[in-house]
Amino acid sequence: MCGIIGIMSDKGPAAPRLLEGLTRLAYRGYDSAGVATLAGGALHRRRAEGKIAALAEKLAADSPPGTRGIGHTRWATHGGPTEINAHPHATDKVAVVHNGIIENHAALRVEMEAAGHVFTTQTDTEVIVHLVTENLSRGMDPRAAAFAALDRLEGAYAVVFLFADEGAPMIGGRCGTPLAVGWGEGEVFLASDSYALAPLTSRVTFLEDGDRVVVTAQEAQIVDCAGSTVERPVRTSTISAAQIGKGDHKHFMHKEIHEQPAVLGELINGLVFEPAVLEALAATPRLTMAACGTAAYACRVGAYWLESLARLPCAVDIASEFRYRTPPLPEKGAALFVSQSGETLDTLEALRYARSQGQTIISILNTIESTMERESDYVLRTHAGPEIGVASTKATAAQLTVLAGLALALAGDRPDEAAALRHLPALMVEVLERETEIAGLARVLAGFTHMLYIGRGPLYPLACEGSLKMKEISYIHAEAYAGGEFKHGPIALIDEDFPTVALAPSTDPLFDKMRSNMEELAARGGKILLLSDADGVAAMGKTATWSFAVPEVHPFTAPILYLLPLQLLAYHAALAKGTDADQPRNLAKSVTVE
Ligand code: G6P
User: Fold this and answer.
1) Pocket test for ligand 1, best of 323, 368, 591 (most atoms within 8 A of CB)
2) CA 563 to the chain's CA centroid
3) Which of 50, 75, 211, 511 has its CA 20 to 30 A from that of 423?
4) Between helices 459-474 and 558-577, what is the axis angle to 10°?
5) Do residues 228 and 284 share a domain?
6) What is d(CA 544, CA 549) in angstroms, rounded to the nearest whole number?
7) How many CB atoms lie within 10 A of CB 282?
8) Digit-coded pLDDT (tens) for 103-136
9) Are residues 30 and 134 in the same domain?
């Protein structure tokens, strides 16, 4: 999973523009980065290990010349995150940037080595550059050399080639991972997404799988997988620079946490579902749901709602397991996929499996123009706007809101729950206003090495989400268990160094059960951070070591409201530990490899 960009222009210097694009693509990976430019018939490469700032420093000291270039920000798959393995990979004739995995790279490498090519990296990508170079040395022109190389590749890729030849076009291709063309005035751009293109142009064309694109500074010709020249629609991107800036916030994650009341307010106001979606859900004997990471926890919360309110049986799985389990799916069934990016390959392949089994495909998506959108029968939009922080926050809240709305729409007359949903943004504001209190608690938690999160009902998957947030950005080991389950084993871990975050609104029908579970922990010396409302905090008395009184909330919407203190706890624990909340180690925001 990586971000790529290409600039075909005769205007200003390419390097600073490439760098800005890479900064916008950093959410896709940030363990190393690089650029290559073309000037004087030669390629000029600069690469750096580490975050984009390391490349920026290199470019500030020694910017490569030229108005044309390609750039890459990497999330390592094959070969460690070193400068040698950083893209672009190049020979003296051609440079390439690649997002994806070439599955037959080992066989191609043997073939290229036999032909005399010397490999210098551990990446799967390097084989591409040798294939093209070999083709060029056999007399093919750049276009033919690139196309013939792409024909040999198996796996997933978006690639951009820059040739050491002023007369050659830039060539791009996509198969399984995204690539977009940006149309400028007398210049053309390629990039993994429209965020990277936003400062360059608002006119964007998304390539389809199998498409290749031949780019000059004046025009771009798109060729489909059958080799025919095709027209693809040009869209006007509405992404503004402000949407992808941090504003006054220290991190995107913080900004995105604070955007949640506004995002949900608008979303709830406009929440209507196409009758065909509701019909498909009403008709399915069982709803299949699959997603990855945070989105999978959103599915699990949603399943509680859909089953209890709408009486719709649900089968939820993480996408990477689902597709290889090859489960039998109901005849005339429906399947629901949830994804912020719409590009996560595990989820996409799960979707494709469900489609192959004749299911109606419904997706809940945030990013516009994604591959999942194109492959779904119906798309429910979360309208959260661009989410840049790697740890999902506002997109999760919006996914939950759409799922809650869907459960209500299917359940029929539920005035109390509907009113609770409408009231939610106001309660969220109340939580955010008390951020300082939560920050204080987070600083205490940051002193521990391990912690447990517990909840019951839909607050159990929410506890899983809280623990995921904590571990991914603060690197504290956090486990989550259903309130009733941890006594069946994990309770052995509990001592005064292993605190528990307990999600227990007093309005929840299972509050008394949670109360017993907390007593069990306290009796064993376990420290408890209680997230409840004022009544719950009062009822628990001294059993909890620390507490935060969340505003009283209807149990239906509690999972969405309780998400906020969990996000803030993780964020402030990360600040206390000095980790990078927006770009935690080893992660990428959307993972387009298996
Ligand atoms: C990655 C991210 C997670 C995210 C998951 C699913 O693993 O690090 O934060 O939840 O992908 O992403 P999606 O875009 O499909 O929601």
Assistant:
1) 591
2) 18
3) 511
4) 20
5) no
6) 12
7) 12
8) 999 999 999 999 999 999 999 999 999 999 999 9
9) yes
